[in-house]
Prior knowledge:
Two copies of one chain form a homodimer.
Chain A: H1 8-26, H2 33-40, H3 44-50, H4 54-77, H5 83-97, H6 100-110, H7 117-126, H8 128-143, H9 152-167, H10 175-193
Helix pairs in contact in A: 1-2, 1-4, 1-6, 4-5, 4-6, 4-7, 5-8, 5-10, 6-7, 8-9, 9-10
Chain A binds a DNA duplex (30 and 30 nucleotides) through α3.
Amino acid sequence: MNKRRYDSEKAKVEIMEHAVSLFSQKGYNQTSVGDISTASGYSKGHIYYHFENKEKLFVLLAQQTMQDWHNKWLQKECIYFTAAEKLYGMAMHVLYHYQTPLLRSGQELASNPKSSPESVEQLYNLAVIPMGAYRAILQEGMDRGEFVNGNIDEWTVLLGTWLGGLCQLTNTQELKALESLFNQAVTIFLRELKKVGYK
Amino acid sequence: MNKRRYDSEKAKVEIMEHAVSLFSQKGYNQTSVGDISTASGYSKGHIYYHFENKEKLFVLLAQQTMQDWHNKWLQKECIYFTAAEKLYGMAMHVLYHYQTPLLRSGQELASNPKSSPESVEQLYNLAVIPMGAYRAILQEGMDRGEFVNGNIDEWTVLLGTWLGGLCQLTNTQELKALESLFNQAVTIFLRELKKVGYK
DNA sequence: ATAAGATTTGAACGGTCGTTCTAATTGTAT
DNA sequence: ATACAATTAGAACGACCGTTCAAATCTTAT
């Protein structure tokens, strides 16, 4: 509104942005609250004014990031007609927008016995979001006869793990160079989904 | 030989065994030298008598584990005749003997800017071992006409990432329950490798 | 028996980190 | 102008961790 020297909400957002960046780059344990303080320009005390503790901050960021990813997909999904097209589109959406490094930090937190069980559960629950998105595409393909009928849960997991595995490559390679690999995976997977002439 | 109260080699082995277990369970950063000391029953100082530091100890364990895995595979490989059989066998070998949790700890170490570049490089070099094993099978299959010719590097990466992705499931599910999933992945992959009637 | 070397311990140090607390500063309503 | 609440800073703490070191204990060769 008016020019106020204090804008707590802006500070909060800035802290969160820098925290995401740091957690992604350095992992959960190696990112200290001091690091976030230095990067964002706000004091450590101020971070605790906005967030209960480091763990809760991270879980919030992970949830928000995953929701963002899913919302972006729902927005983009309608530009594709067939389920097969959606699979290729999803592969690119995963490649370019899935925040692999951040979610790997989540595994760090989850594997720490000192982490609160609630946080761990909340992080594990995040995995159902992409799986649900994959499953929806497969279901749609089966419903409209584009894909043969099969064990949809099994297919969902197979597709999810493959895309997840491919995502690990984003640590060491350029995204652009990985496009053909992601597409190739979808192509191979589609050959199974569209399998005809067998029974 | 004779009953000696001190057996340094035995102590070293015991320390390493407990360290592997702890690194696998809790990750690299969350496993302290004190933890290893308590679990193994030897003092912290004694650990430093055998190993230069925590980082070097971990790299050694990771290398040894990976070598073990590969050696076990080479031993087992000869019981399979066709390349396709080897792929199924490899999938089971990965499921039951690939030490996923330990290698994830390696990512923790590698993503820490304070880790020595040598250690990071040594850990990254470990990834070539399974990839080489996958590639050898694919090459053999193509050589003997079992698989169609194709981009072997691409196929190797696709197979490796898929198995790697599936391995993540070992954190939350029973190994036995994952067998069919691993087999299904190989089946789908084989359909591409054996593709006939297309061109 | 003794000396020299190998093995093992446990205390101690320096550093880092998550968190808390108090005080200072700023905004807003009176 | 004053009071009160919101915001921010920074010092301080208690805990933990990787590492070092000097001393104690044990083995082996003489």
